[in-house]
Q: What sequence folds into this?
């Protein structure tokens, strides 16, 4: 693809489409021939059980891994059919918030946030400093530019990671578990921050991988639910709230009670072994 083909409108909302997409690692298939769309200019939240493919899908969306088959369409561009030069150009238009913030410990917060501009543009130090200060202020860290990552709380590091992801004003922002590991107050602040950023950037397409149901209700316009290697739901948050599907209701209602006793265990414990272990534990626990 030539350079002209990569000229893109800076405020355009980008749709993301998955077309017959199969993802996995070598011979292990994680998601099999899935088809779905994530609407441009909306916040899509991807839900699913542990190991269900959420983070795998996100790594493919950002281009860190190639799919086993199928396509990932970002707007009109097939991500993995681009030339190397066009692929790199498209990647630069995506911001990524990693689960742990992924800050460099040897750099101050301001230097971490400004690193993409310093490495890839010819902007002056003064201009970069102004952009960095604006983005730190955007995430509530205007007074912490001289701090180092180990001097910040987990929530502050995630907000700093978000400031760095936003430094290039990307049309697509990808977030991996932004509230993971945060206490309820910091998690709520992160949700409010994402909603605020979306209001300030109405054309931005945001994709959030999460397991946080409270966050889902706060930020989601669109929802994708992964299950058993496929898609259990892909649609609006409003429609999802009305679903009567048992699996989806367990997700939404946080009902994790097993309805049936597992009968397909691969290994059984003999009763005499169970008794022997229990007697040994009782004796140990009763010791003075």
A:
């Amino acid at each position: 693809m030539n350079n002209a083909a990569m000229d893109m409108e800076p405020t355009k909302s980008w749709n993301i489409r998955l077309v017959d997409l199969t993802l996995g690692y070598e011979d292990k298939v994680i998601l099999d021939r899935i088809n779905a769309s994530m609407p441009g200019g909306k916040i899509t939240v991807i839900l699913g059980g542990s190991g269900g493919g959420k983070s795998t899908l996100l790594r493919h969306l950002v281009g860190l891994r190639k799919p086993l088959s199928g396509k990932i369409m970002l707007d009109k561009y097939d991500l993995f059919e681009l030339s190397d030069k066009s692929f790199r150009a498209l990647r630069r238009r995506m911001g990524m918030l990693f689960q742990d913030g992924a800050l460099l410990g040897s750099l101050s917060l301001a230097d971490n946030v400004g690193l993409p501009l310093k490495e890839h543009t010819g902007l002056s130090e003064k201009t970069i400093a102004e952009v960095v200060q604006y983005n730190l202020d955007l995430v509530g860290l205007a007074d912490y530019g001289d701090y180092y990552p180990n001097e910040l709380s987990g929530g502050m590091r995630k907000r700093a990671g978000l400031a760095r992801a936003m430094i290039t004003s990307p049309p697509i922002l990808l977030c991996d578990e932004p509230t993971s590991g945060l206490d309820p107050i910091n998690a709520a602040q992160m949700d409010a921050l994402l909603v605020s950023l979306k209001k300030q950037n109405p054309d931005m397409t945001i994709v959030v991988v999460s397991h946080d149901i409270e966050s889902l209700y706060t930020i989601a316009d669109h929802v994708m639910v992964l299950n058993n290697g496929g898609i259990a739901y892909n649609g609006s948050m409003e429609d999802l709230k009305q679903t009567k599907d048992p699996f989806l209701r367990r997700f939404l209602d946080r009902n994790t009670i097993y309805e049936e006793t597992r009968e397909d265990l691969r290994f059984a414990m003999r009763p005499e072994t169970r008794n022997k272990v229990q007697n040994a534990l009782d004796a140990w626990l009763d010791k003075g």
